[in-house]
Amino acid sequence: MNQEEKLKLLSDLIGVPSVNGREREVALILQSFLKSHGITAHLIDYDTDRSNLIASYGDKKTPVLGFSGHMDVVTANEKEWQSFPFALTAVGDHLIGRGTADQKAGVAAQAIALAELADAHAKLNGQVRLLFTVGEEVGEYGAQQLTELGYADDLSGLVISEPSSQDVWYANQGSIDYTVVSTGKTSHSSMPDLGVNALDNLVTFYNALQQALQSHQEESPILGKFHNSVTTFHAGDQVNTIPNHAELQGNARTIPEFDNTAFIALITNAVNRLNESSSMNLGLTINFNKMPVVSGKDSPLVHQTVDIAQEITGKNLQVIGMVGTTDSSEFIKAKTHFPIIVYGPGITQQAHQPNEFVSKRAYFQSIDVYRELAKRFLNKAND
Q1: Range(s) for CATH 3.40.630.10 in the chain?
Q2: Which residues of 263-283 are buried (b: 16+ CB within 10 A; e: fewer)?
Q3: How far apart are CA 175 and CA 288, in angstroms?
Q4: pLDDT band (50, 70, 90) for residue 381
């Protein structure tokens, strides 16, 4: 394929404002593109206007190398952008648009790599499978659905095309979103003893949680420190009324040394202890629960990706862990164990930013990396 065709596919994907939805439009573009190269792609519906995409190429059923990316993007405030965010704009080597880095350039590159393998009638001792997902930004819904349907059970390796600055990530932190609601009793502020101040009780909880976390300073040599951040806090609607409702939300970034199970037990115990008081009525909801992932740093998939990427890019790649989460937290729940890496063309720090961009050069290089990795990984697996 020539560069104009490669840019057109990315442009078409960026043109769909798939902000927490509308992934079906993206999937249909990819399905049509793959069909034009003799590849049948299937859509797996998640919800109205939301569909995952599955496609494969290869001569044998196994082994299977998975290529995965998500088709949703985060919102874009047009006032913060120098160009319209849902149109691909080229400025020098920069391809600007919402989702260029996170993650439509990676998705397009993986689809193009599969198409180029098909165009060349490449002989593979196995198959490459695309697993393009919905809802990664808000809950990894698509990856969860595809895993539950068994599409990851026969994988021998998985490459996720999140923006990795063309480095290789083999581990990522887990993530927990939670909500704590405090229920009290309304009264006039001149007679506070007749009410129960939900805000006061929520502050008591916040302080108890912070104190409990003081004894947990665990740190991963790969993923760094455990972090917990309370990010929203709401109570009351009138200054002279004791509030009967208050709530906070928080996010914890977990590591194997202090994982999701441990943190949920800690915060649950804090709520339960405080609820022993008759004046306390706290409720805890875990909204999002994704485990940390640590794959094999010395796996053949890592070594082959590094070797190929260094040959193509001329860059000395780092093999490191990352602080964010990816769809890997769902795919690791498959029935079989397989190495997972993140390798993508976007710059990590560009994710979710105004005037988000990906390097045109990196975009084209990533296509070559994915194509050559598919051949080397599958052929080596059968040696």
Answers
A1: 3-172+292-381
A2: bbebbeebbeebbeeeebbbe
A3: 7
A4: low
CB atoms closer than 10 angstroms to residue 300: 15
List 12, 25, 136, 356, catalytic entry: 136
Exposed / middle / buried, residue 364 (Cβ in 10 Å: 0-12, 13-18, 19+): middle
- Class for domain 3-172+292-381, per CATH? alpha beta
Q: What is the DSSP annotation of 9-20?
A: HHHHHHTS--BS
Place of tokens 């095309």: 161
Active site residue 154: no
Catalytic-role residue among 23, 25, 72, 368 = 72
| Rounded mean pLDDT, 247-265 | 96
User: Which residue has tokens 């009780």?
Assistant: 201
Look up residue 352 and give its amino acid: H
Q: What is the pLDDT of residues 40-64, one digit of tens each?
A: 999 999 999 999 999 999 987 889 9
Span(s) in the chain for CATH 3.30.70.360:
174-290
Count CB atoms within 10 A of the CB of residue 177: 17
Please tell me the distance from the alpha carbon of residue 348 to that of residue 162, in angstroms, as a whole number. 8
Report in angstroms the alpha-carbon separations of 80 from 74, 134, 227, 353, 356.
Answer: 14, 26, 29, 9, 11
Name the CATH topology of 174-290: Alpha-Beta Plaits (3.30.70)
SS3 string of 325-356?
CCCHHHHCCCCCCCCEEECCCCCHHHCCCCCC
pTM recorded for the entire structure: 0.90
Residue 383 appears among annotated catalytic residues: no
Summarised one tens digit per residue, pLDDT across range 342-351 is 999 999 889 8
Per-residue burial over 217-247, b if 16 or more Cβ lie within 10 Å, else e, is eeebebbeebebeeeeeebeeeeeebbbbbb
